[in-house]
Amino acid sequence: MNETAAPPSRWLAPALATAFGAALLYSLYCMLLFSGPYRWLAELQMRWFGSYYVSVTCVFTLLFGVVPLLVIIRVLTAANKLPHDSWAVLLATPRPGGGLAARVTRARGWLMALGVGVMLCALSARDLVVAARGKRLQQISAQALEAGDEAGSTWLEVAGTLDWDRSLETEEDHKKLTYIPIVSERWSPSSPLGALLVVADDELARLEAEPLSGTVDITGAPGLVRAGFENIGVDVNRATVLQFGASPEEKATGSLFLLGLGLTIALVGGVGCFVRMRR
């Protein structure tokens, strides 16, 4: 006797679209805060290759959220809780009309474009917020930061001494970075660090001739860097991370292009979703 196929599920395609959106937002959250699967994957790449790749890490973080959902669907399909042609329903192009599931499936490509555009907008918006908060250069001492004072600007010039003996080198996307503590005369490793300067390998020579100024990294020290300093007995969890060199506005120049690109992709994706789901 032939087994009767289960009726197509009306909630399958909307559930997948919702889960994909949630995974996209979670991936962005982990990337911005250097936490969760994004941090785990970055640390794994550092152990294996000596550096980690932002784009690759973002993609696999997204897969980390989507793959468990696909496994659940496969299990439910095997248990006859979902139709055995679930994958065909998802991948095939549905006929015009139909319910919500059919409309969402028709617009799946446009939904993905919309998600990518939103992610690009969020990334560029972060840099633009930093630029908006860093229109003036604020001078502050390392001692004040060590005491817990908060800077009112994201563009700082810190008065202090570079502690090269406790510096840490790392690599991201084949770009060598050096993290150097900025300390006061009263600081000791038993107390939290107030400021941490990040310098690219090609900018190290400028340190002798220029003040210790740059843009604050609002995400703080990356997890790998925090772990590295912990291994040498330095607490950087509260440290202000300063990216040496350009002001926030100069660093945000490329973000305007990225924001425009993200808005364009999101607009095209949104219009495409509207048109496809209306048919």
- The secondary-structure class comes to alpha+beta
Number of domains: 2
List the helices and strands in order.
HHHHHHEHEEEEEEHEHH
The biggest sheet amounts to: 8 strands, mixed
Q: Please, what is the average pLDDT?
A: 77
Spatial gap, N to C terminus: 39 Å
Written description of the protein model:
The chain has 279 residues and is α+β, with helices and mostly antiparallel strands. It folds into two domains: 95 residues, no CATH class; 109 residues. Helix content is 51%, strand content 14%. It has ten helices and eight strands. Strands 1, 2, 3, 4, 5, 6, 7 and 8 form an eight-stranded mixed beta sheet that branches. Helix 7 links the parallel strand 1 and strand 2. Helix 5 packs across helix 10 and helix 6 runs antiparallel to helix 10. The longest helix has 26 residues. The chain is elongated. The two termini are 39 Å apart. About 5% of the residues have low confidence.
Give the helices and strands, then pairings:
Layout: H1 12-33, H2 36-49, H3 54-78, H4 86-91, H5 100-106, H6 108-132, E1 138-141, H7 142-146, E2 155-159, E3 161-162, E4 168-172, E5 175-183, E6 195-200, E7 213-216, H8 223-231, E8 240-244, H9 248-251, H10 253-278
Helix pairs in contact: 1-3, 1-5, 1-6, 2-3, 5-10, 6-10
